[in-house]
Amino acid sequence: MQDTGIVRRIDDLGRVVIPKEIRRTLKIREGDPLEIYTNKEELILKKYSPVASIGGGAKAVADELAVVTEKTCVITDCDAVICVSGGKMKDYIGKNLSEKFTEAVRGKKSLLVSRADGGTVIPLVHGDDLSAENQIIVPVTADGDCYGAVMLFDKDKTARFSSHEVKLAMLGAGILAAGCKE
User: 154: how many CB neighbours lie within 10 A of its CB?
Assistant: First the structure.
């Protein structure tokens, strides 16, 4: 990305307005957390992802969910894929989420989709449909804010997710949400 700069004044409450064009380019939405730090004479604003900051904890949750459910597990923040376990999808890590997936996650409702029941699987990243037959998406929410999602999916046309697998995905999202609050 090209370096961009603009001069802004600070108001009497210490606020600085970030122009809409910059927010759109960086996909900064209202309510998104920003990390503020200094470097010599620079003030730096950086997008902050609580799910990504958990680091190894998110990967451990994904690994255990994949082992216990025997499904592929993907953990995301609200912008990109954080980690993947149980499938050959390592190249997805760091990719931006599709608009439909982001919209579904920000809706803060869990989704259970099966193509066999006439459902439409939500694409994870732009231009890829996962070729999944069944999908669970559980948002990671804490204190009313959405920080990401836990997704389980499989490619078995004859299988359906059990209520236990749904609850395990919810448990994983709950563990990540607790980590986001710390």
Answer: 20
Residue closest to 75 by CA, chosen among 46, 53, 47, 48: 53
pTM: 0.82
CATH of the domain at 17: 2.10.260.10
134 phi and psi angles, rounded to 5 deg: -135, 145
**Mean per-residue pLDDT, 93-115:** 91
For 22-32, the pLDDT digits (tens) are 888 888 888 88
Determine whether 105 is exposed, middle or buried from the number of CB atoms within 10 Å of its CB (0-12, 13-18, 19+): buried
Residue where one domain finishes, among candidates 30, 48, 66? 48
- Are 43 and 60 members of one domain? no
Distances (CA, A) of 160 to 35, 37, 75, 117, 120: 41, 47, 21, 10, 14
Domain assignment of residue 68, given as a range: 51-181
Q: Specify the DSSP class assigned to residue 96.
A: B
Q: Assess whether pLDDT exceeds 60 at residue 1.
A: no
Q: What is the CATH number of the domain that holds 106?
A: 3.30.450.40
Residues 168 and 94 in one domain: yes
Instruction: Please state, in angstroms and rounded to a whole number, the distance separating the CA atoms of residues 22 and 5.
Output: 9
